Amino acid sequence: MKVLCIASHPDDEVLGVGGSLLRHIAEGDEVTVVLMHRCTRDASWAESFRVADQMDVEYIREPDDLDALVRKLEPEVVYTHHPGDLHAEHREVHERALVACRPYSAPLVRALYTFETPSASDWGVAPFTARRFVDVTAHLERKLDLMRAYVSELRPYPHPRSISALDARAAFWGQQAGYDAAEAFDVVRERW
Question: What CATH number does residue 12 fall under?
């Protein structure tokens, strides 16, 4: 299966969907990450290259034409930002992903999910609703290690982008679904 993560900035892909992407990789799926915006910190951009190497997936940075890229990659499952995030660029990426993944433009996209981004979704303009849970218990430690590679983006606890807070968030979503650790998603569209 082909999986695409359309994220705004370096670290968003790990914060929001890192454990699920690692699970897709472990299950043999082909994963591609698109980062739509360069972060204001050059360190974050450089760190994203290290994370891509550690994940061993293709990262595409600042594509000229997202619609054409989605048609070319032909993903079946797409993850992107929650539309109610506080960060305006996250909301913009969400809208661009919806346009690029329209059923008649990208007919192979059978599932479109939104993820929360700690420190953007929790302070956002609309609440995040979890409708899909992915068991990431076997991948949580590696997700946290990937986040540690984003040294410039980490914050001390109790900030939502601290390692302890990310671990607690995975436990919280796991409790909702009966797993030790989970990531949560809202469902925009799902076809079967």
Answer: 3.40.50.10320
Question: What percent of the chain has a predicted confidence (pLDDT) above 90?
Answer: 91
pLDDT score of 26 more than 70: yes
The C-alpha atoms of residue 34 and residue 113 are separated, in whole angstroms, by 15
Whole domain around residue 60: which residue ranges? 2-190
Helix (H) or strand (E) holding 139, with range, is none
Name the domain count of the chain.
1
31-48, pLDDT tens digit by residue? 999 999 987 667 888 999
Estimate to the nearest angstrom the gap between the alpha carbon of 42 and the chain centroid. 20
Q: How many CB atoms lie within 10 A of CB 138?
A: 13
Measured from the Cβ of residue 134, the count of other Cβ atoms closer than 10 Å reads 21
Q: What is d(CA 69, CA 64) in angstroms, rounded to the nearest whole number?
A: 9
